[in-house]
Design a protein that fits this description.
mainly alpha; 2 strands
Length: 361
Amino acid sequence: MLLLITVLLVALAFEYINGFHDTANSIAMGVSTKALTPRLAIIIAATTNLAGALVGTAVAKTITKGLVDAQFVTTTTIITALLGAIIWNLITWWFGLPSSSSHALVGGLCGATLASSGGNWSSIIWAKGGGAHWWDNTGILYKVVAPMLISPVLGFCGGLFVMSLLYVLLRNWRPATVTRRFKMLQMFSGSYMGFSHGSNDAQKTMGIIALALAAAVKAGTLDQVPGWLEFLRHPMVMTGDGKEVIAPWIKVLCALVMAAGTSAGGWRIIRTMGQKMVKVLPVNGFAADFTAATVLMSAAHFGMPVSTTHAVTTSIMGVGCAKRFNALKFSVVERILWAWVLTLPLTGLLGYLLMEAAKLF
Protein backbone atom coordinates (compact mmCIF):
# COMPACT_ATOMS: atom_id res chain seq x y z
CA MET A 1 0.00 0.00 0.00
CA LEU A 2 2.89 2.35 0.78
CA LEU A 3 4.32 1.71 -2.68
CA LEU A 4 0.97 2.54 -4.27
CA ILE A 5 0.73 5.81 -2.34
CA THR A 6 4.26 6.62 -3.51
CA VAL A 7 3.37 6.04 -7.16
CA LEU A 8 0.29 8.25 -6.85
CA LEU A 9 2.36 11.04 -5.30
CA VAL A 10 5.07 10.73 -7.96
CA ALA A 11 2.41 10.78 -10.70
CA LEU A 12 0.91 13.95 -9.27
CA ALA A 13 4.40 15.46 -8.96
CA PHE A 14 4.88 14.77 -12.68
CA GLU A 15 1.53 16.42 -13.41
CA TYR A 16 2.54 19.48 -11.38
CA ILE A 17 5.91 19.74 -13.14
CA ASN A 18 4.17 19.22 -16.47
CA GLY A 19 1.96 22.17 -15.57
CA PHE A 20 4.79 24.64 -15.03
CA HIS A 21 7.06 23.06 -17.67
CA ASP A 22 4.39 23.47 -20.34
CA THR A 23 2.90 26.72 -19.08
CA ALA A 24 4.99 28.45 -21.71
CA ASN A 25 3.04 26.64 -24.42
CA SER A 26 -0.18 28.28 -23.27
CA ILE A 27 1.01 31.78 -22.44
CA ALA A 28 4.36 32.47 -24.13
CA MET A 29 2.81 34.31 -27.05
CA GLY A 30 0.50 36.50 -25.00
CA VAL A 31 3.23 37.48 -22.54
CA SER A 32 5.94 38.02 -25.14
CA THR A 33 3.78 40.31 -27.29
CA LYS A 34 2.63 42.15 -24.14
CA ALA A 35 -0.98 41.42 -25.06
CA LEU A 36 -1.38 39.87 -21.60
CA THR A 37 0.32 40.60 -18.31
CA PRO A 38 2.12 37.59 -16.81
CA ARG A 39 -0.38 37.42 -13.93
CA LEU A 40 -3.44 37.51 -16.23
CA ALA A 41 -1.87 35.05 -18.65
CA ILE A 42 -1.21 32.53 -15.86
CA ILE A 43 -4.77 32.89 -14.51
CA ILE A 44 -6.19 32.28 -17.99
CA ALA A 45 -3.85 29.32 -18.60
CA ALA A 46 -4.58 27.69 -15.24
CA THR A 47 -8.34 28.10 -15.62
CA THR A 48 -8.51 26.83 -19.20
CA ASN A 49 -6.07 23.98 -18.45
CA LEU A 50 -8.43 22.88 -15.68
CA ALA A 51 -11.45 23.01 -17.98
CA GLY A 52 -9.69 21.18 -20.80
CA ALA A 53 -8.45 18.43 -18.49
CA LEU A 54 -12.04 17.54 -17.56
CA VAL A 55 -13.12 17.02 -21.17
CA GLY A 56 -12.70 13.59 -22.76
CA THR A 57 -10.45 10.65 -21.83
CA ALA A 58 -9.30 9.27 -25.19
CA VAL A 59 -5.63 10.11 -24.55
CA ALA A 60 -5.82 8.67 -21.02
CA LYS A 61 -7.14 5.37 -22.37
CA THR A 62 -4.24 5.23 -24.86
CA ILE A 63 -1.73 5.57 -22.02
CA THR A 64 -3.60 2.99 -19.90
CA LYS A 65 -4.04 0.26 -22.51
CA GLY A 66 -2.48 1.18 -25.84
CA LEU A 67 1.31 1.43 -25.33
CA VAL A 68 2.60 -1.36 -23.09
CA ASP A 69 1.46 -4.81 -21.99
CA ALA A 70 -0.18 -4.29 -18.59
CA GLN A 71 0.90 -7.74 -17.33
CA PHE A 72 4.48 -6.45 -17.06
CA VAL A 73 3.53 -3.22 -15.30
CA THR A 74 3.89 -2.95 -11.53
CA THR A 75 3.75 0.04 -9.21
CA THR A 76 7.57 0.10 -9.26
CA THR A 77 7.46 0.23 -13.06
CA ILE A 78 5.22 3.29 -12.90
CA ILE A 79 7.40 5.04 -10.32
CA THR A 80 10.60 4.56 -12.33
CA ALA A 81 8.88 5.61 -15.56
CA LEU A 82 7.65 8.81 -13.94
CA LEU A 83 11.03 9.53 -12.33
CA GLY A 84 12.72 9.20 -15.73
CA ALA A 85 10.24 11.65 -17.25
CA ILE A 86 10.55 14.07 -14.32
CA ILE A 87 14.37 14.08 -14.48
CA TRP A 88 14.30 14.85 -18.21
CA ASN A 89 11.67 17.57 -17.77
CA LEU A 90 13.75 19.28 -15.08
CA ILE A 91 16.93 19.09 -17.18
CA THR A 92 15.28 20.65 -20.22
CA TRP A 93 13.47 23.23 -18.06
CA TRP A 94 16.80 24.27 -16.53
CA PHE A 95 18.29 24.87 -19.97
CA GLY A 96 15.12 26.59 -21.20
CA LEU A 97 14.42 23.98 -23.87
CA PRO A 98 10.75 23.36 -24.77
CA SER A 99 10.95 19.57 -24.87
CA SER A 100 7.98 17.23 -24.83
CA SER A 101 6.56 16.09 -21.48
CA SER A 102 4.36 13.68 -23.45
CA HIS A 103 7.25 11.90 -25.10
CA ALA A 104 9.22 11.97 -21.85
CA LEU A 105 6.39 10.06 -20.17
CA VAL A 106 5.98 7.60 -23.05
CA GLY A 107 9.73 6.98 -23.23
CA GLY A 108 10.00 6.45 -19.48
CA LEU A 109 7.04 4.07 -19.46
CA CYS A 110 8.38 1.98 -22.34
CA GLY A 111 11.89 1.78 -20.89
CA ALA A 112 10.69 0.85 -17.41
CA THR A 113 8.28 -1.78 -18.79
CA LEU A 114 11.05 -3.28 -20.92
CA ALA A 115 13.23 -3.65 -17.82
CA SER A 116 10.32 -4.98 -15.76
CA SER A 117 9.71 -7.70 -18.36
CA GLY A 118 13.34 -8.80 -18.29
CA GLY A 119 14.13 -7.34 -21.70
CA ASN A 120 11.08 -8.79 -23.47
CA TRP A 121 10.56 -6.39 -26.39
CA SER A 122 7.04 -7.70 -26.94
CA SER A 123 6.10 -6.01 -23.65
CA ILE A 124 5.89 -2.81 -25.69
CA ILE A 125 2.91 -2.62 -28.05
CA TRP A 126 4.59 -1.48 -31.25
CA ALA A 127 1.57 -1.64 -33.56
CA LYS A 128 -1.84 -3.25 -33.23
CA GLY A 129 -4.32 -3.01 -36.10
CA GLY A 130 -8.01 -3.59 -36.33
CA GLY A 131 -9.30 -0.05 -36.70
CA ALA A 132 -11.04 1.24 -39.79
CA HIS A 133 -8.40 3.97 -40.12
CA TRP A 134 -4.74 4.09 -39.12
CA TRP A 135 -5.50 6.49 -36.27
CA ASP A 136 -8.01 4.01 -34.83
CA ASN A 137 -5.24 1.46 -34.23
CA THR A 138 -3.11 1.24 -31.09
CA GLY A 139 0.56 0.93 -30.28
CA ILE A 140 3.65 3.14 -30.25
CA LEU A 141 3.77 3.41 -34.05
CA TYR A 142 0.20 4.66 -34.49
CA LYS A 143 -0.30 6.64 -31.29
CA VAL A 144 3.17 8.14 -30.72
CA VAL A 145 5.61 7.89 -33.63
CA ALA A 146 3.21 8.83 -36.44
CA PRO A 147 1.73 11.81 -34.54
CA MET A 148 5.27 12.84 -33.48
CA LEU A 149 6.17 13.21 -37.14
CA ILE A 150 2.86 14.57 -38.38
CA SER A 151 1.97 17.15 -35.70
CA PRO A 152 5.10 19.32 -36.20
CA VAL A 153 4.47 19.34 -39.96
CA LEU A 154 0.85 20.34 -39.39
CA GLY A 155 1.96 22.98 -36.90
CA PHE A 156 4.51 24.49 -39.29
CA CYS A 157 2.31 24.37 -42.40
CA GLY A 158 -0.73 25.56 -40.46
CA GLY A 159 1.15 28.49 -38.94
CA LEU A 160 2.56 29.42 -42.34
CA PHE A 161 -0.90 29.24 -43.95
CA VAL A 162 -2.81 31.13 -41.23
CA MET A 163 -0.19 33.89 -41.05
CA SER A 164 0.00 34.22 -44.84
CA LEU A 165 -3.80 34.46 -44.96
CA LEU A 166 -3.78 37.17 -42.30
CA TYR A 167 -1.15 39.13 -44.23
CA VAL A 168 -3.49 39.12 -47.25
CA LEU A 169 -6.63 39.99 -45.27
CA LEU A 170 -4.96 42.74 -43.25
CA ARG A 171 -2.78 44.27 -45.94
CA ASN A 172 -4.77 47.53 -45.96
CA TRP A 173 -5.01 47.86 -42.18
CA ARG A 174 -2.90 50.33 -40.26
CA PRO A 175 -0.21 48.57 -38.15
CA ALA A 176 -1.46 50.24 -34.98
CA THR A 177 -4.99 48.93 -35.63
CA VAL A 178 -3.73 45.40 -36.27
CA THR A 179 -1.74 45.45 -33.03
CA ARG A 180 -4.65 46.79 -30.98
CA ARG A 181 -7.22 44.33 -32.35
CA PHE A 182 -5.01 41.28 -32.07
CA LYS A 183 -3.95 42.10 -28.55
CA MET A 184 -7.61 41.61 -27.65
CA LEU A 185 -7.91 38.48 -29.80
CA GLN A 186 -4.91 36.94 -28.08
CA MET A 187 -7.00 36.50 -24.95
CA PHE A 188 -9.24 34.21 -27.03
CA SER A 189 -6.38 32.35 -28.72
CA GLY A 190 -4.52 31.95 -25.41
CA SER A 191 -7.65 30.51 -23.80
CA TYR A 192 -8.11 28.13 -26.72
CA MET A 193 -4.46 27.09 -26.37
CA GLY A 194 -4.82 26.50 -22.61
CA PHE A 195 -7.98 24.44 -23.08
CA SER A 196 -6.38 22.26 -25.77
CA HIS A 197 -3.27 21.79 -23.63
CA GLY A 198 -5.37 20.57 -20.71
CA SER A 199 -7.42 18.25 -22.94
CA ASN A 200 -4.26 16.48 -24.10
CA ASP A 201 -1.54 16.74 -21.46
CA ALA A 202 -3.49 16.27 -18.22
CA GLN A 203 -4.94 13.03 -19.54
CA LYS A 204 -1.53 11.38 -19.71
CA THR A 205 -1.20 11.34 -15.94
CA MET A 206 -4.81 10.20 -15.64
CA GLY A 207 -3.82 7.19 -17.72
CA ILE A 208 -0.72 6.55 -15.60
CA ILE A 209 -2.72 6.62 -12.36
CA ALA A 210 -5.36 4.29 -13.82
CA LEU A 211 -2.58 1.94 -14.98
CA ALA A 212 -0.96 1.98 -11.52
CA LEU A 213 -4.25 1.22 -9.77
CA ALA A 214 -5.02 -1.58 -12.22
CA ALA A 215 -1.58 -3.08 -11.48
CA ALA A 216 -2.26 -2.81 -7.73
CA VAL A 217 -5.61 -4.59 -8.11
CA LYS A 218 -3.93 -7.34 -10.14
CA ALA A 219 -1.23 -7.75 -7.48
CA GLY A 220 -3.82 -7.92 -4.68
CA THR A 221 -2.48 -4.78 -3.02
CA LEU A 222 -5.97 -3.31 -2.70
CA ASP A 223 -7.75 -6.48 -1.49
CA GLN A 224 -7.87 -5.31 2.12
CA VAL A 225 -8.58 -1.61 1.69
CA PRO A 226 -11.25 -0.17 4.01
CA GLY A 227 -14.66 0.59 2.58
CA TRP A 228 -14.05 4.32 2.28
CA LEU A 229 -11.12 3.60 -0.07
CA GLU A 230 -13.04 1.15 -2.25
CA PHE A 231 -13.02 3.69 -5.09
CA LEU A 232 -9.30 2.97 -5.57
CA ARG A 233 -10.19 -0.48 -6.87
CA HIS A 234 -12.15 1.01 -9.77
CA PRO A 235 -9.96 3.37 -11.82
CA MET A 236 -12.12 2.67 -14.87
CA VAL A 237 -15.90 2.96 -14.82
CA MET A 238 -18.64 2.15 -17.30
CA THR A 239 -20.87 4.83 -18.76
CA GLY A 240 -24.55 4.43 -19.54
CA ASP A 241 -23.80 3.59 -23.18
CA GLY A 242 -21.37 0.80 -22.22
CA LYS A 243 -18.10 2.69 -22.75
CA GLU A 244 -15.21 2.33 -20.31
CA VAL A 245 -13.80 5.67 -19.11
CA ILE A 246 -11.40 7.02 -16.49
CA ALA A 247 -13.04 7.45 -13.06
CA PRO A 248 -14.21 11.05 -12.43
CA TRP A 249 -12.13 11.42 -9.23
CA ILE A 250 -8.92 10.78 -11.21
CA LYS A 251 -9.89 13.38 -13.80
CA VAL A 252 -10.65 16.05 -11.20
CA LEU A 253 -7.50 15.34 -9.18
CA CYS A 254 -5.18 15.53 -12.21
CA ALA A 255 -6.92 18.63 -13.54
CA LEU A 256 -6.48 20.48 -10.24
CA VAL A 257 -2.82 19.51 -9.90
CA MET A 258 -1.99 20.56 -13.46
CA ALA A 259 -3.75 23.89 -12.91
CA ALA A 260 -1.68 24.40 -9.74
CA GLY A 261 1.52 23.65 -11.65
CA THR A 262 0.48 25.99 -14.43
CA SER A 263 0.06 28.81 -11.94
CA ALA A 264 3.72 28.38 -10.91
CA GLY A 265 4.86 29.58 -14.36
CA GLY A 266 7.78 28.59 -16.56
CA TRP A 267 9.66 31.73 -17.42
CA ARG A 268 12.86 30.17 -18.78
CA ILE A 269 10.92 28.39 -21.56
CA ILE A 270 8.71 31.42 -22.20
CA ARG A 271 11.81 33.45 -23.03
CA THR A 272 13.04 30.80 -25.49
CA MET A 273 9.72 30.40 -27.28
CA GLY A 274 8.49 33.98 -27.25
CA GLN A 275 11.69 35.97 -27.61
CA LYS A 276 14.74 33.98 -28.65
CA MET A 277 13.35 31.89 -31.49
CA VAL A 278 11.58 34.55 -33.57
CA LYS A 279 10.31 38.07 -32.95
CA VAL A 280 6.53 38.02 -32.62
CA LEU A 281 3.78 40.64 -32.70
CA PRO A 282 0.20 40.15 -31.42
CA VAL A 283 -1.04 39.02 -34.84
CA ASN A 284 1.78 36.44 -35.01
CA GLY A 285 0.97 35.22 -31.50
CA PHE A 286 -2.71 34.82 -32.40
CA ALA A 287 -1.86 32.80 -35.53
CA ALA A 288 0.58 30.52 -33.66
CA ASP A 289 -1.77 29.85 -30.72
CA PHE A 290 -4.80 29.22 -32.94
CA THR A 291 -2.88 26.79 -35.18
CA ALA A 292 -1.26 24.82 -32.36
CA ALA A 293 -4.50 24.58 -30.35
CA THR A 294 -6.35 23.20 -33.38
CA VAL A 295 -3.65 20.53 -33.91
CA LEU A 296 -3.87 19.53 -30.23
CA MET A 297 -7.65 19.34 -30.14
CA SER A 298 -7.66 17.15 -33.24
CA ALA A 299 -5.05 14.82 -31.72
CA ALA A 300 -6.94 14.58 -28.41
CA HIS A 301 -10.09 13.59 -30.30
CA PHE A 302 -8.25 10.57 -31.75
CA GLY A 303 -6.58 9.66 -28.45
CA MET A 304 -3.07 10.61 -29.59
CA PRO A 305 -0.74 11.83 -26.80
CA VAL A 306 1.04 14.35 -29.02
CA SER A 307 3.50 16.94 -27.85
CA THR A 308 2.03 20.33 -27.03
CA THR A 309 5.57 21.67 -27.26
CA HIS A 310 6.10 20.38 -30.79
CA ALA A 311 2.80 21.77 -32.02
CA VAL A 312 3.36 25.21 -30.51
CA THR A 313 7.01 25.54 -31.46
CA THR A 314 6.52 24.53 -35.09
CA SER A 315 3.50 26.82 -35.33
CA ILE A 316 5.72 29.70 -34.22
CA MET A 317 8.30 28.66 -36.81
CA GLY A 318 5.64 28.62 -39.54
CA VAL A 319 4.34 32.03 -38.50
CA GLY A 320 7.88 33.44 -38.57
CA CYS A 321 8.59 31.99 -42.00
CA ALA A 322 5.39 33.52 -43.45
CA LYS A 323 7.25 36.85 -43.49
CA ARG A 324 10.71 35.58 -44.42
CA PHE A 325 12.65 32.42 -43.69
CA ASN A 326 15.61 34.21 -42.16
CA ALA A 327 13.30 35.58 -39.45
CA LEU A 328 13.97 32.33 -37.59
CA LYS A 329 16.99 32.11 -35.31
CA PHE A 330 18.26 28.77 -36.50
CA SER A 331 20.81 28.31 -33.71
CA VAL A 332 17.95 28.24 -31.18
CA VAL A 333 15.83 26.03 -33.45
CA GLU A 334 18.71 23.55 -33.71
CA ARG A 335 18.93 23.23 -29.90
CA ILE A 336 15.19 22.63 -29.72
CA LEU A 337 15.29 19.97 -32.44
CA TRP A 338 18.05 18.08 -30.61
CA ALA A 339 15.92 18.07 -27.47
CA TRP A 340 13.05 16.60 -29.51
CA VAL A 341 15.16 13.86 -31.10
CA LEU A 342 16.74 12.81 -27.81
CA THR A 343 13.64 12.84 -25.59
CA LEU A 344 12.18 9.40 -26.40
CA PRO A 345 15.45 7.39 -26.39
CA LEU A 346 16.97 9.12 -23.35
CA THR A 347 13.85 8.91 -21.20
CA GLY A 348 13.47 5.29 -22.31
CA LEU A 349 17.04 4.68 -21.15
CA LEU A 350 16.41 6.53 -17.88
CA GLY A 351 13.26 4.49 -17.21
CA TYR A 352 15.10 1.25 -18.01
CA LEU A 353 18.09 2.04 -15.77
CA LEU A 354 15.94 3.23 -12.88
CA MET A 355 13.84 0.05 -13.06
CA GLU A 356 16.97 -2.12 -13.13
CA ALA A 357 18.30 -0.21 -10.12
CA ALA A 358 14.98 -0.71 -8.31
CA LYS A 359 15.34 -4.49 -8.76
CA LEU A 360 18.46 -4.39 -6.58
CA PHE A 361 16.48 -3.28 -3.54
